[in-house]
């Protein structure tokens, strides 16, 4: 069978593409397949999220370098850091603790930030909720002092103290 | 059952073509990624561990009475039906593929879906018609709170909600709007829009998500970053960018009417003609023609067709829907014939 694109060379690449549930079969020669981006130049798709992530995580690792140390493993799920760099997925919540030291630069690169500033779960997040509340009250107290509203500042100070005294952690 | 009944049964809430700014925004979507604290993530879990997650989520959802949700075990569902859920955007393409212990909860009007054992244990999704991100977020957050009463979610003070993929950590929130931008396409302004949007921390994808090309000038715009910003900030940002894009698209439509009136009318009427008389139409061609005719209706060039019909057809003409409406599996060629029959019947209804 001839290549469907150039109609010149023998088709050696048979692609079955399923796009939005619709199956299409394409027969191409190797050259046309590469030209149209259907064939990656070196095995895996070099632009997959996992491969890009792998490059970010460990600049010394790239798809041509196979001499990578196996390194540390998560004690809960057994995922190694190397596995993580390969598929870009954590195995369990404890992986975040296990690979803690290496995550800040990674998260910074992905999100530009490294500290959560959003919703806090009701039951689990009691401690954090209180910390945020105290921070907000401190800001309010500063404003009160600045505006020489000392009575209000003292009230807020007592509120902060009460919150801190009750905060025995989770 | 008449065709009208069959179609009505297949149309989910968001496809209705209603909602604020519906001439440009097809739908608003909020997705939250959540995981149970002491269970391994689906990519590392055994069949038994996934079963345990399913069981715990099913119990948590069944024990609440506020929202009526029905559970579907995807393993019990034929492939065609799963594809139908993908075309309606109720489950992800990855979730429709075979695997252990995957399930989804849906409400009656298919506004809420909760995927179990997708990339994360739980993916809460709320999908509404038009631009209404605030309402959509409130409902998703309410559902999140209901589940959190029964389940301990993996959460860290520093990194927020922990997810399987580091791109979802923090809020676990993906907010997106699906927009129809034919005039920005026709005036070659899409490229500029894409550049501007990406500078504001948003990404643009085709109608069927990651890796899919834009079809019929439909784009999904969503937040890229999930850590460090509050949900409110993320939603406000997307809301204001969406309003800007709506404004730009309206201006482009004005420009087309003033400067290119005859070309645009010709293009729209030709598309309408093909939809009404073709014997075979592929799904890609249908998308393009429907997009043109929807533009014609929104601009007042075609006035004898209900505008919600075109929004509906964008989903009803997808391959799984065509087969479902005809009650059997069909070859590509058979589908193309049935697709044009469906469009023609629907346009006359």
Automatic annotation (TrEMBL), chain A:
Residues 131-166 form the UVR domain. Keywords: Coiled coil. The keyword Coiled coil applies. GO terms for biological process: stress response to cadmium ion; stress response to copper ion. It comes from the Bacteria. Residues 127-166 form a coiled coil. GO terms for molecular function: cadmium ion binding; cobalt ion binding; copper ion binding; zinc ion binding. This is UVR domain-containing protein.
UniProtKB/TrEMBL annotation, chain B:
One of its GO terms (molecular function) is ATP binding. ATP binds at residues 27-31, 89, 123, 174-178, 205-210. It is an enzyme of class 2 (transferase). Residues 24-252 form the Phosphagen kinase C-terminal domain. Its EC number is 2.7.14.1. InterPro entries: Arg_Kinase (IPR023660), ATP-guanido_PTrfase (IPR000749), ATP-guanido_PTrfase_AS (IPR022415), ATP-guanido_PTrfase_cat (IPR022414), Gln_synth/guanido_kin_cat_dom (IPR014746). One of its GO terms (biological process) is phosphocreatine biosynthetic process. It comes from the Bacteria. GO terms for cellular component: extracellular space. Keywords: ATP-binding, Kinase, Nucleotide-binding, Transferase. Pfam families: ATP-gua_Ptrans. Signal peptide: none annotated. It catalyses: L-arginyl-[protein] + ATP = N(omega)-phospho-L-arginyl-[protein] + ADP + H(+). PANTHER family: ARGININE KINASE 1-RELATED, ARGININE OR CREATINE KINASE. Catalyzes the specific phosphorylation of arginine residues in proteins. Belongs to the ATP:guanido phosphotransferase family. This is Protein-arginine kinase. It comes from Iocasia fonsfrigidae. The gene is mcsB.
């Amino acid at each position: 069978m001839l290549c469907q694109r150039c109609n010149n060379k023998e088709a050696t690449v048979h692609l079955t593409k399923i796009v939005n549930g619709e199956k299409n079969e394409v027969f191409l020669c190797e050259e046309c397949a590469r030209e149209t981006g259907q064939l990656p130049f070196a095995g895996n798709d070099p632009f997959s999220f996992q491969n890009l992530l792998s490059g970010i995580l460990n600049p010394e690792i790239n798809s041509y370098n196979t001499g990578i140390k196996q390194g540390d493993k998560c004690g809960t799920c057994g995922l190694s850091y190397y596995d993580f760099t390969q598929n870009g997925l954590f195995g369990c919540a404890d992986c975040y603790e296990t690979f803690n030291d290496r995550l800040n630069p990674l998260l910074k690169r992905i999100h530009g930030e490294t500290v959560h500033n959003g919703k806090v779960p009701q039951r689990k997040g009691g401690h954090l909720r209180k910390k945020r509340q105290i921070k907000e009250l401190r800001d309010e107290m500063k404003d009160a002092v600045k505006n020489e509203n000392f009575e209000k500042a003292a009230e807020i100070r007592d509120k902060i103290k009460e919150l801190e005294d009750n905060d025995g952690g989770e | 059952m008449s065709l009208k009944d069959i179609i009505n049964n297949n149309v989910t809430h968001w496809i209705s073509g209603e909602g604020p700014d519906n001439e440009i925004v097809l739908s608003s979507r909020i997705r939250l990624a959540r995981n149970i604290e002491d269970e391994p993530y689906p990519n590392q879990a055994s069949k038994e561990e996934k079963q345990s997650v399913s069981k715990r989520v099913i119990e948590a959802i069944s024990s609440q009475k506020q929202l009526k949700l029905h559970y579907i075990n995807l393993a019990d569902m034929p492939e065609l039906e799963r594809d139908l859920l993908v075309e309606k955007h109720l489950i992800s393409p990855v979730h429709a593929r075979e695997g252990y212990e995957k399930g989804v909860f849906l409400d009656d009007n298919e506004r809420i879906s909760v995927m179990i054992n997708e990339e994360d244990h739980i993916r809460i999704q709320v999908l509404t018609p038009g631009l209404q991100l605030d309402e959509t977020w409130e409902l998703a957050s309410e559902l999140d709170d209901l589940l959190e009463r029964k389940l301990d979610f993996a959460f860290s003070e520093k990194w927020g909600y922990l997810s399987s993929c580091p791109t979802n950590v923090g809020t676990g929130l993906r907010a997106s709007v699906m927009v129809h931008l034919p005039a920005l396409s026709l005036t070659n302004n899409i490229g500029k829009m894409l550049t501007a949007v990406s500078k504001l921390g948003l990404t643009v994808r085709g109608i069927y998500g990651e890796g899919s090309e834009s079809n019929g000038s439909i784009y999904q715009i969503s937040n890229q970053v999930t850590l460090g910003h509050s949900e409110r900030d993320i939603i406000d940002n997307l809301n204001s960018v969406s309003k800007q894009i709506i404004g730009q698209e309206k201006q482009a439509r004005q420009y087309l009417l003033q400067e290119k009136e005859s070309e645009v009318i010709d293009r729209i009427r030709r598309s309408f003609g093909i939809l009404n008389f073709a014997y075979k139409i592929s799904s890609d061609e249908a998308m393009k023609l429907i997009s043109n005719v929807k533009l014609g209706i929104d601009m007042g060039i075609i006035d004898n067709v209900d505008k919600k019909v075109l929004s509906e057809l964008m989903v009803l003409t997808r391959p799984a829907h065509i087969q479902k409406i005809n009650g059997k599996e069909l070859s590509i060629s058979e589908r193309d014939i049935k697709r044009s029959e469906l469009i023609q019947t629907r346009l006359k209804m």
